[in-house]
Amino acid sequence: MTRAEREAEIKSFTDKILKKLSGTSKNLDKIITEISISQETSNLYWTKINQRIRAEYEAARSITQEFLLGNFPEYYKSKVREELTRIKNKGFNLPKTSKATKLVSSHGSKQSLKSLLNETITTYRTGFQTGQQTITRLASLTQQINIQEKKIEKAIADGYLESGSVQGSKKKLRNELLKKAVDGKYITVIDKNGNPENWKVDTYAEMVTRTKLMEASTQAVVDTADAVGADLVQVSVHNTQCAICAPFEGKIFSLSGSDPDFPAADELSPFHPNCQHSETIVFKDFLQQQGTLDKYIDFSNGETDEHPTRTEWVPISERKLH
Questions:
Q1: How far apart are CA 205 and CA 203, in angstroms?
Q2: pLDDT tens-digit profile of 251-297?
Q3: How far apart are CA 41 and CA 144, in angstroms?
Q4: S-S: 305 plus which of 108, 177, 263, 315, CB 3.0-4.6 Å?
């Protein structure tokens, strides 16, 4: 499968889940608009607001879980079948036990799929939880400020306070939360460097789905390699300008870490959220037949920046990495 075909496949998958979440996203935007202009102080009103917030996030959790349980397993299985077909078309004689139907129904594949599903569902739930907490806190602060301002207005009218008395710290925090919410970026996620990233519901859903689909694709390759007795995988190439991905691109790694010639696969794609890189199985015998084994050994170990077979390859030193 080409990179363009893979992108089209992933887009089709993400479009479906975004379509299912669109109603929830619109409803949350309506709630935020109501909160932003509300002057209400009654507990009854704000209790209903919180109930609506909770209901929308419960709906989002239910939608994503149902969709993933219904679609994710087949995607993983399709990647196993795809990789098996690819290496068979290369002319390799594979064990009878490596038939796609047996592989996808094996205990190892079932465990991989279960782990992938649990991780994906948990990632969605964690993001949705931070979004719910942000909007709920915004609602709570708005009620508190509305109550305090009415007290202040009455005190000013009665002559007990001078104009200009405000709750500065609460207003500042509320304004910060409101800006985030109005922008739609009310899902906060801490990246691997410890920095907060703010996401909209739809972009968060797309990021999680894309990333987890790539994880499923990689896991399918790893499971297939195990089934056919392969140890080497190669990272895809598209002349990335991503500083995170560039050191891996096009290189061959050993899954077991025991190959004497190739570096250990300490990390596999996706290398970051929305990463487009993937792995494929390679065999030493095939590289030897091609006459590229020594070149790939040097390239994969960083001895050279010249790709052994890619004519369109741009040396990393010549790319504008970011």
A1: 5
A2: 999 999 999 999 999 999 999 988 999 999 999 998 999 999 999 99
A3: 8
A4: 315
